[in-house]
Amino acid sequence: MSDLAEVIPLSALNQYAYCPRRCYLIHAEGEFQDNIHTVRGTLEHERVDQQNGESKAAGVRLEYALPVWSDVLGISGRCDAVEFRPDGEIFPVEHKHGKRKQWSNDDLQLAAQAMCLEEMTGKDIPRGAIFHQQSRRRREVIFDDALRLAVKTAVEEVRAMLSRGVCPSPLGGSEARRCGECSLRGICEPELVGSGGELEQIALTLFDPKEEVL
């Protein structure tokens, strides 16, 4: 496997796709704070990890909390669940506590898991699923060329961001609505740090850049 310092956790790809600043705060500065969403997510993952290897579908072998990695991409992590089906298909399943989300970060993480499994097993993995605990439904995800490219791009961008050591700015525009449910909002303080935020306005009241210095 790649040098440990260069190995990107699969969870970092999920965080980055949701918000680069959140990803940096967690994986570069070690910041984390729970809210109701992260606690529910943790409990759901713990529940899944405690499952056994049996399946209701005949002939399907299930592996939970399966470690995966890719030497080519330099990523590692674990799959919530992987179904090994009688026809030879390998089908990764990511468990999420809520209902279906409008963001693509979960799909990106699942695709990265599949790409790891492909490298480890030598088999093509064209699809997987997100299981949404709140609705008790699976949503199938197709690992097409666009999604695979998005994974590779995210890996490169996360690695570059962590290497630079510069925390990205908060999300702006319509994407700023993601901040509402973020557990790191109190640490990130997007209203103060963001362009046009309160901190910038305060600075303008304290110092006039046009004022001549004697």
UniProtKB/TrEMBL annotation:
Mg(2+) or Mn(2+) required for ssDNA cleavage activity. GO terms for molecular function: exonuclease activity; iron-sulfur cluster binding; metal ion binding. It holds the Pfam family Cas_Cas4. Keywords: Antiviral defense, Exonuclease, Hydrolase, Iron, Iron-sulfur, Manganese, Metal-binding, Nuclease. It comes from Candidatus Methylospira mobilis. Gene3D superfamilies: 3.90.320.10. Residues 11-188 form the DUF83 domain. Belongs to the CRISPR-associated exonuclease Cas4 family. GO terms for biological process: defense response to virus. CDD domains: Cas4_I-A_I-B_I-C_I-D_II-B (cd09637). CRISPR (clustered regularly interspaced short palindromic repeat) is an adaptive immune system that provides protection against mobile genetic elements (viruses, transposable elements and conjugative plasmids). CRISPR clusters contain sequences complementary to antecedent mobile elements and target invading nucleic acids. CRISPR clusters are transcribed and processed into CRISPR RNA (crRNA). This is CRISPR-associated exonuclease Cas4. InterPro entries: Cas4_exonuclease (IPR051827), CRISPR-assoc_prot_Cas4 (IPR013343), Dna2/Cas4_DUF83 (IPR022765), PDDEXK-like_dom_sf (IPR011604). Its cofactor is [4Fe-4S] cluster; iron-sulfur cluster; Mg(2+); Mn(2+). Its EC number is 3.1.12.1. The keyword Metal-binding applies.
